[in-house]
Design goal:
Catalyzes the reversible cyclization of carbamoyl aspartate to dihydroorotate. Homotetramer. The protein has 448 residues and is of the alpha/beta class. The chain has twelve helices and 18 strands. The strands form four sheets. The protein has a six-stranded parallel beta sheet with strand order 9-10-11-12-13-14. Strands 5-15-16-17-18 form a five-stranded antiparallel beta sheet. Strands 3-2-1-4 form a four-stranded mixed beta sheet. It is globular and about 70 Å long. It starts with a strand and ends in an 11-residue tail after the last strand. The mean pLDDT is 97.
């Protein structure tokens, strides 16, 4: 039976409007006036809660199989549902085996089976020696490929040098899928680290100095040149330096198929505010200055940065080395799946940005990157009925019980955020409601 969800604010690609979201058999069938709701339709009045499309996070480290003690499909997708995400695209590293072959992809699919509260899809890996696996992975259903131009922190997922990358790029281009690049080069980092041998690694400024903007800038310049030469879809992950924006903007203006993401932690935290020893805020590339943060927001506003994704990268608490407070010893990663919408909404409320902006950055643009815009990323007839009820007025304090992922640690603990996900629907079915989850995971792998 059809179901109508009433709201004064339904955020659609055509704008925000009052009315009813009509759902039947898991699909959005119409967005209409309340007076146009068909007879015999079940009506759910959402009042002043906004209805947004389910968020899409194209940068998540789920870490299963092999490192489920770090996270896992069940806990990651539970946190995602609580945060308003209905689709996750999983990164190919930190799991064992890494998703660099079709056989490893099938192991991941087996691990995910029956475990997911929201939908998921895999990225494949482009590493030093798997060029022959690129096209088979594409044919087997990965949505694109991730590579590192620098050591990624885990030995099994090898960085790729320029020669190896150029050997893989014809296959990437032939696949038509995007290449997601961790854009830092080692040489500027090695030089900076060498000069810091006697520095105090409990100081955040030491860590920041060890990952200079130049490492990102050189990597992005290299990738722009290769994109021009090999004509593949290039995506820059977790951009942290605003200094790269002018060159990215110029390359896009020249017609190169380049997209760019940044993350909540770069838009919310600033280096000047990070206390020494607060290794919960270590990530790579690093969180930079307040002025740099203002530049990233300008990049979002002018469209040079397309999207905001979490880079949800959890680990067991002891790996953050809060005991020593040494940034050189701590795992680099910040988990935020359950909080990201509220973080960005808080920032946008203070800046005057709209729910339509947030929806574009956190739903439609990541869905387009992953090739899933035909079914996710917007409230539009014919798409999956993946949506959330979002109370834009309510505030809450971040406490461990609000996190929902495996290890309840977070640099956001104690903060007050504005905007609460009250309910998350997957194909019209309630998967999260005010702290409670569906009894049975309903997520599945989504495909191109």
């Amino acid at each position: 039976m059809a179901h109508a969800f009433l709201s004064k604010r339904i955020v659609t690609p055509q704008g925000t409007q009052p009315g009813a979201l009509l759902v039947d058999d898991g699909t959005i069938c119409a967005i209409c006036r309340q007076s146009e709701i068909p007879a015999d339709t079940i009506v759910d009045d959402c009042g002043n809660d906004a209805l947004l499309p389910g968020l899409v996070d194209s940068h998540v480290h789920i870490n299963q199989p092999g490192r489920t003690e770090w996270e896992g499909f069940r806990t990651a997708t539970r946190a995602a549902a609580a945060g308003g995400y209905t689709t996750l695209v999983d990164m190919p590293l930190n799991c064992l085996p890494e998703t660099t072959t079709v056989a490893a992809l099938e192991e991941k699919r087996e691990a995910a089976s029956g475990e997911c509260f929201v939908d998921w899809a895999p990225w494949g890996g482009a590493v030093a020696d798997n060029q022959q696996h690129i096209l088979p992975l594409a044919q087997a259903g990965v949505l694109g490929f991730k590579c590192f131009l620098i050591y990624p922190g885990c030995d099994g997922f090898t960085m790729i040098d320029q020669q190896q990358l150029e050997a893989a790029l014809p296959s990437v281009a032939q696949s038509g899928l995007p290449l997601l690049v961790h854009a830092e080069l080692a040489a500027p980092i090695d030089a900076a680290t060498q000069s810091l041998r006697n520095a105090d690694w409990r100081q955040y400024q030491t860590y920041l100095a060890s990952r200079p903007d130049e490492a990102e800038l050189q990597a992005i310049r290299l990738m722009i040149r290769l994109c021009r030469q090999y004509s593949f879809r290039l995506h820059i992950v977790h951009l942290s330096t605003a200094l790269a924006l002018a060159e990215l903007k110029s390359a896009r203006k020249a017609g190169l198929p380049i997209t760019v993401e940044t993350c909540p932690h770069y838009l919310h935290f600033a280096a000047e505010e990070i206390a020494d020893g607060n290794t919960l805020l270590k990530c790579a590339p690093p969180i930079r200055s307040k002025e740099n943060q203002r530049g990233l927001w300008r990049g979002l506003h002018d469209g040079t940065i397309d999207m905001i994704v979490t880079d949800h990268s959890p680990c067991p608490p002891d790996m953050k080395r809060t005991d020593t407070g040494r940034f050189d010893q701590a795992w680099g990663g910040i988990a935020s799946l359950s909080l990201a919408l509220s973080i960005i909404h808080t920032e946008c409320f203070n800046r005057g940005d709209t729910l339509e902006d947030i929806t574009r950055w956190m739903s439609s643009a990541p869905a387009a990157l992953a090739g899933l815009a035909h079914q996710a990323g917007a409230l539009q007839p014919g798409r999956d009925a993946n949506f959330i009820r979002f109370d834009t007025e309510a505030t809450f304090a971040v406490t461990p019980d609000k996190l929902h992922y495996r290890h309840a640690i977070s640099p956001y603990l104690g903060e007050t955020l504005r905007g609460i996900v009250k309910a998350t629907y997957l194909r019209g079915e309630l998967v999260y409601h005010e702290g409670a989850f569906a009894p049975t995971p309903q997520g599945r792998e989504v495909k191109l």
